[in-house]
């Protein structure tokens, strides 16, 4: 029995869900998202919540049960409150700024790095050392944040680079004489 799958997904105020076959479409104040479930599970709307049930006792049906419920919950959270990843930049001379839809990063290279904001995501730089990535698609927000971080990952000796807010970087001791 799936502990995650058996919980119904409550729809917050202002969020509506519509089920057509195996596809669920969730509408909210931030936008509209949809997800198509596999044939191993059944989706049902019951008194203001979405219930996911497996169609059999096979291992695949049980796996899809919990995964589908998590996907539906992520849709509802995305269209109601949205997802956010915060990055912080550490290092002398490292900074970020927005110019239109382009994120300009000065990361110690001989040139500035220009990162184009993809569709469905908003990037802001409230300070020169902070970047905030927001959107309604959790996977897309996380992927964009990872792509930005990839330009200069935190290194273990001085800790310079782009890191997630609150991330702890294991520091190494330098050379000894």
Automatic annotation (TrEMBL):
Top-rank taxon, per record: Bacteria
Domain Large ribosomal subunit protein uL6 alpha-beta: from-to ranges: 12-82, 91-164
UniProt-listed PROSITE patterns: RIBOSOMAL_L6_1
InterPro entries assigned to the protein according to its UniProt record, in alphabetical order: Ribosomal_uL6-like, Ribosomal_uL6-like_a/b-dom_sf, Ribosomal_uL6_a/b-dom, Ribosomal_uL6_bac-type, Ribosomal_uL6_CS
GO biological process: cytoplasmic translation
Any one Gene Ontology molecular-function term assigned to this protein's record: structural constituent of ribosome
Gene3D superfamilies documented for this protein: Ribosomal protein L6, alpha-beta domain
Residues spanning the membrane: none
Record's GO cellular component terms: cytosolic large ribosomal subunit
Keywords in alphabetical order: Ribonucleoprotein, Ribosomal protein, RNA-binding, rRNA-binding
Subunit structure: Part of the 50S ribosomal subunit.
Role description: This protein binds to the 23S rRNA, and is important in its secondary structure. It is located near the subunit interface in the base of the L7/L12 stalk, and near the tRNA binding site of the peptidyltransferase center.
The family this protein is said to belong to: Belongs to the universal ribosomal protein uL6 family.
Name of the featured protein: Large ribosomal subunit protein uL6
Biological source species: Paracoccus yeei
């Amino acid at each position: 029995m799936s502990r995650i799958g058996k919980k119904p997904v409550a729809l917050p105020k202002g969020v509506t869900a519509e089920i057509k076959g195996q596809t669920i479409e969730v509408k909210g104040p931030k936008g509209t998202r949809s997800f198509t479930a596999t044939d191993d599970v059944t989706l049902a709307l019951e008194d203001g919540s979405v219930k996911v049930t497996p169609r059999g006792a096979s291992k695949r049906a049980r796996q899809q049960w919990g995964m589908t419920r998590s996907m539906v919950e992520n849709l509802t959270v995305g269209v109601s409150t949205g997802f956010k990843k915060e990055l912080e930049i550490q290092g002398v001379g490292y900074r970020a700024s927005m110019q239109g839809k382009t994120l300009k990063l000065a990361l110690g290279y001989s040139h500035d790095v220009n990162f184009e904001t993809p569709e469905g995501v908003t990037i802001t730089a409230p300070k020169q050392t902070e970047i905030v990535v927001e959107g309604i698609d959790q996977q897309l927000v996380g992927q964009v944040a990872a792509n930005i971080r990839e330009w200069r990952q935190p290194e273990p000796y001085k800790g310079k680079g782009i890191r997630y807010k609150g991330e702890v970087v294991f520091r190494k001791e330098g050379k000894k004489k």
